Amino acid sequence: MSLQSLLAKLPFGPWRKAGPLVSVVRLSGVIGQGGPFRSGLSLAGVAPLLERAFAPKDQKAVALIINSPGGSPVQSALIAKRIRDLAEEKKVPVFAFCEDAAASGGYWLACAADEIWADESSIVGSIGVVSSGFGLHELIERHGIERRLYTAGDKKVLLDPFSPEREDGVAHLKALQADIHEAFKAMVRARRSGRLTGSEEDLFSGAFWAGRKALALGLIDGLGDLRSVMRGRFGEKVRLRVVQQERGMLRRLGLRTGGSTPLPEAGAPEAFADALVAAARTSLDDWAAWARLGL
After folding, report:
1. What pLDDT sits at residue 252?
2. From CA 160, how far away is CA 153, in angstroms rounded?
3. Which residues of the chain have a pLDDT value below 50?
4. Please, what's the b/e burial string for 49-64 (b: 16 or more CB within 10 A of its CB; e: otherwise)?
5. Which one, out of 63, 91, 110, 231, has a CA that is 20 to 30 A from the CA of 81?
6. What's the pLDDT score for residue 40?
């Protein structure tokens, strides 16, 4: 046996032969701009991670771990496009692994991959568009509150929650939803071409399924977890390189210090109170997004 072969068996040193490399990026949470106490998944936040994930030369693949109930269709489309642009530029295959959910915008992200894998209990699908709100006009009338609203343009406040619902407002919203739904369907058709087996009436109804049914419908390519699938594809010595954001003290505490909604400065109790209200609203919106999937 040669000296080089002996050195290659050692568990350390530059002479050790490295295994195949796969970069891993986690995309977890509701998609969209976050608040002062929660970062949403947005292109601005995810882009640096994607750039680092696709940077290594000669890596075998990039893996996406997806756990999202959806959110902003715009941010879903932007993130998915960036993934595809980098994959084509670097000529690297992309694998998506669904955890609890890859639903709605979360499934949009998964479709950016060349292959989609899930657990038997993962929630997959929800290819539809939803908007929600409250009608509060009777509540404020009951408490003697007068609503004063001034606009230029008769359709400026079509969906004002403090005014009675307008038929033209609902019709306008449904037309917007139909346009967004068509873009979503086009993305799924293009990325899952030749693999979808369910009828479009079912697939694009907004329904969602567990992993095994999603596989039967052609929404995913297999059942399995990241480590097992990557080992089966690239060998037992595959190296999984997890790409993470830099985290300072405030980030470790769950506080968001950058972006469009910075933490209020000390000595500004009104601003901090507003931030707490915004955080509560964001938490409620996040809970509603997951609750629509029964999670």
Report:
1. 45
2. 14
3. 4, 7-8, 13, 15-16, 249-266, 272
4. bbeebbebeebbbbbb
5. 231
6. 80
Instruction: State the virtual CA torsion across 281, 282, 288, 291 in degrees, nearest 10.
Output: -130
Q: At what angle do helices 73-90 and 167-191 cross, to 10 degrees?
A: 20
| Cα gap 163→144, rounded to integer Å | 14
> What separation in angstroms does the CA of 176 have from each of 11, 42, 183, 203, 229?
59, 21, 11, 20, 39
Work out the widest C-alpha separation in the chain, in whole angstroms. 92
Label residue 211 exposed, middle or buried (CB < 10 Å: 0-12, 13-18, 19+).
buried
Give the span between the Cα atoms of 209 and 223, in whole angstroms: 13
| pTM for the model | 0.77
Alpha-carbon gap, residue 165 to 133, rounded angstroms: 11
Give the closest residue to 59 by CA, choosing from 31, 21, 101, 2: 21
Strands 94-103 and 115-118: parallel
**3-state class (DSSP) for residue 85:** helix
Name 163's Cβ contacts closer than 8 Å, sequence gap at least 6: 137, 147, 149, 157
3-state DSSP assignment of residue 117: strand
Q: Please, are residues 219 and 123 in contact by the beta-carbon 8 Å criterion?
A: no
Region at 218 (left for phi over 0; alpha for psi -120 to 50; beta for the rest) = left
Give the helix/strand (H/E) hosting 187. helix 167-191
Q: Which of 61, 68, 65 is nearest to 42 (CA)?
A: 68
Pairing of strands 123-125, 208-210: antiparallel
Q: Residue 106 class from Cβ within 10 Å (0-12 exposed, 13-18 middle, 19+ buried)?
A: buried
